[in-house]
Amino acid sequence: MADAKTILVIAEGEDRARELLYGAAQLGERVVFYCQDGGAINAGDVRLKAQEGVAFVEAIPALLAFAEAEKPDAILLETTQNCRLLAGELAAKLGTTPLCDAQSLSIENGKLFSERMVYGGAANRVENEPMPGAIALVAAAAYQPAEDAQAPAEQALEAVASPVKVTGIEEKVVESVNLAAAKTLVCVGRGFGAEEELKLAEDFARHVGGEIGCTRPISEGEGWMSSARYVGVSGLMLKPDVYFGLGISGQVQHMVGVNGARVVVAVNKDPKAPIFDQCDLGLVASVQEALPLLVDAL
């Protein structure tokens, strides 16, 4: 049963907006949302709609004015750089403190409670802010996506486009991957001795229908994979159905990023690797030896 009257959801992307809308529906009777790329969303009760061509940052003054006037019980935002900026401005306007990186939310005695990981995932911390006006930046995959239902009512958001005009665009090649949506995640670590060996993991991932992720040393240390695939305490926090840790020791800085996985499978040549204390299925073998055999058996 909903414990709040109105929840305001703010997001840039449709996927994250749907997750926040699902969570908001569990908390409030009425859900109002603004999503920069959410024109196809048929969920929630009211969609705030800005004029064509208004960028997210240009909508911030209007969103601040809306929140101050409407005084929603809680405001849920995704964790992009722009939404963090907006959360800070909202907090200053409403006289509150944002609840950051929330993995779950609840309402009790007129307060919004947030649970998040601290100390590299070694513990969870519960924080709260009074309503109305409580603000939470919600971690990816904290909720399942809301499905389309009845089309929401629309309310104009009085946002004004900036007089600054774009005179040219230079494309930057960036890998686009949505690991948060992956049901099966295949992560690689230092057990791979050369970049060429990652083809073994890629072949295995194709056979199990999974997406490839990695530990921090593979991304930032070796530069073999983009930061978009880095899973861990300062990277992505994911909840796949099945997680394969290949050549990964199981340090807390990485494992905290997948502690929501339903099934954990590990392959490591070191029988004393910490990951074997955290997995459901474990195979003591080198990835170079094991992966070709596993692929042949699939």
From TrEMBL:
It holds the Pfam family ETF. FAD binds at R190, T215, R216, G247, I248, S249, G250, Q251, V252, Q253, H254, N268. SMART domains: ETF. Transmembrane segments: none annotated. InterPro entries: DHS-like_NAD/FAD-binding_dom, ETF_a/b_N, ETF_a/FixB, ETF_asu_C, Rossmann-like_a/b/a_fold. Keywords: FAD, Flavoprotein, Transport. Residues 7-176 form the Electron transfer flavoprotein alpha/beta-subunit N-terminal domain. GO terms for biological process: fatty acid beta-oxidation using acyl-CoA dehydrogenase. GO terms for molecular function: electron transfer activity; flavin adenine dinucleotide binding. Signal peptide: none annotated. Binds 1 FAD per dimer. Its cofactor is FAD. PANTHER family: ELECTRON TRANSFER FLAVOPROTEIN ALPHA, ELECTRON TRANSFER FLAVOPROTEIN SUBUNIT ALPHA, MITOCHONDRIAL. The electron transfer flavoprotein serves as a specific electron acceptor for other dehydrogenases. It transfers the electrons to the main respiratory chain via ETF-ubiquinone oxidoreductase (ETF dehydrogenase). Belongs to the ETF alpha-subunit/FixB family. Heterodimer of an alpha and a beta subunit. This is Electron transfer flavoprotein subunit alpha/FixB family protein. It comes from Parvibacter caecicola.
